[in-house]
Amino acid sequence: MEVIKGGVTAAKGFEAAAAAAGIKYQDRTDMALIYSKKPCKTAGTFTTNLVKAAPVKWDKKIVDEKQKSQAVVINSGIANACTGAEGYEYCRETAEEAADILGVDKDGVLIGSTGVIGMQLPIEKLKKGIELLSKKKGSAIENGTEAAKAIMTTDTCEKEIAVTIEIGGKTVTIGGMAKGSGMIHPNMCTMLSFLTTDAVISRKAMCAALRSDVEDTYNMISVDGDTSTNDTVLLLANGMAGNEKIKLDTEAYEKFKEALHYVNEYLAKKIAGDGEGATALFEAKVTGAKTKEQAKVLAKAVVCSNLTKAAIAGHDANWGRILCAMGYAGAEFDPEKVDLAFESAAGKIEIIKNGVAVDYSEEKATEILSSPEITVTADIKEGDKWASAWGCDLTHGYIDINADYRS
């Protein structure tokens, strides 16, 4: 596998664009388009929140009915959530407008929205935005980057990546872009992820690969514990790489799944590290577990703990908060067997051994915890399974952003 420059336009046959439609923001682009020259098989996972945004319902119907797609239209600023029949009708109008302008099947036009909940979309601005997007779309790396910027809300940076693998002598590419900064606690925030590939792959294989991998990537991040109404991960495959079809339970499938995991984990970590007001990406890694599920439950509890997140913000090696979070996580373990260590680019330091503090330097611990990427490793010494979860520190900046988000 090779990491290459680019995002959603890296795979053959995919184009993208960004436009300023003035949906909510007046000083930046706020609409994006992903377009494929050939119809794509689609796979997707969606929020488990009972309150689902209109575009989530729209996209889920397309994926469930196995419709092929050639276009994804995304807007930022307004989430089109809790908007009733009118909001869903706007999805239909958006799809029809995109189909008419782009010359694609309206039944396969996917839609993504992110932003304020409860507001209706200014549909005429949205339609004009689609026309702008159609004129600006292209396959250059920059087109993908601009699209990644256009879907941002409180994000501080765009999030994109692309990789290539070789399957049967053919180069297969997977690219992706994502957005997310607050309301991040996926259960499949406002988290959106769009993945493109030119692989020839069976629908069964691509759906299985995506659904299983989401559990170990996007579902293992948390910024604030809020599962959004709009969480969506979409994977589009247009088959233009010309490889032999990838099928379930084959060597080619495992290679594709590994590459997809790399892309998803990269984007998930980018979202976690860009949490609203955050200054550090915080990884909790639990090793020595009996089962992977046990490790996942314990790791997720640590990154979700507000007390632990606040300690990370203060560069304070307050390990008691970590052990406490593990204790109420709901997975059994023996606290008197736990080894705990902090690690970053500044070094590694053991904090507790068999559940008891060791003689460590608070100054060195503070130095390690002052890095922009920090890992705490907890070895519970019960087996050989492990899992990681990712979050961020909790600062005053989170309150500053969310206290007046609508205004």
Automatic annotation (TrEMBL):
It catalyses: L-glutamate + acetyl-CoA = N-acetyl-L-glutamate + CoA + H(+); N(2)-acetyl-L-ornithine + L-glutamate = N-acetyl-L-glutamate + L-ornithine. The record marks T114, G115 as: Involved in the stabilization of negative charge on the oxyanion by the formation of the oxyanion hole. One of its GO terms (molecular function) is L-glutamate N-acetyltransferase activity, acting on acetyl-L-ornithine as donor. Its EC number is 2.3.1.35, 2.3.1.1. It comes from the Bacteria. Substrate binds at T153, K179, T190, E276, N402, S407. GO terms for biological process: L-arginine biosynthetic process; ornithine biosynthetic process. It holds the Pfam family ArgJ. Pathway: Amino-acid biosynthesis; L-arginine biosynthesis; N(2)-acetyl-L-ornithine from L-glutamate: step 1/4; Amino-acid biosynthesis; L-arginine biosynthesis; L-ornithine and N-acetyl-L-glutamate from L-glutamate and N(2)-acetyl-L-ornithine (cyclic): step 1/1. It is found in: Cytoplasm. GO terms for cellular component: cytoplasm. Its main location: cytoplasm. The active site is at T190. Keywords: Acyltransferase, Amino-acid biosynthesis, Arginine biosynthesis, Autocatalytic cleavage, Cytoplasm, Multifunctional enzyme, Transferase. Gene3D superfamilies: arginine biosynthesis bifunctional protein suprefamily, ArgJ beta chain, C-terminal domain, L-amino peptidase D-ALA esterase/amidase. InterPro entries: Arg_biosynth_ArgJ (IPR002813), ArgJ-like_dom_sf (IPR016117), ArgJ_beta_C (IPR042195). The keyword Transferase applies. Belongs to the ArgJ family. NCBIfam families: ArgJ (TIGR00120), PRK05388.1 (NF003802). Heterotetramer of two alpha and two beta chains. Catalyzes two activities which are involved in the cyclic version of arginine biosynthesis: the synthesis of N-acetylglutamate from glutamate and acetyl-CoA as the acetyl donor, and of ornithine by transacetylation between N(2)-acetylornithine and glutamate. This is Arginine biosynthesis bifunctional protein ArgJ. It comes from Mediterraneibacter hominis. The gene is argJ.
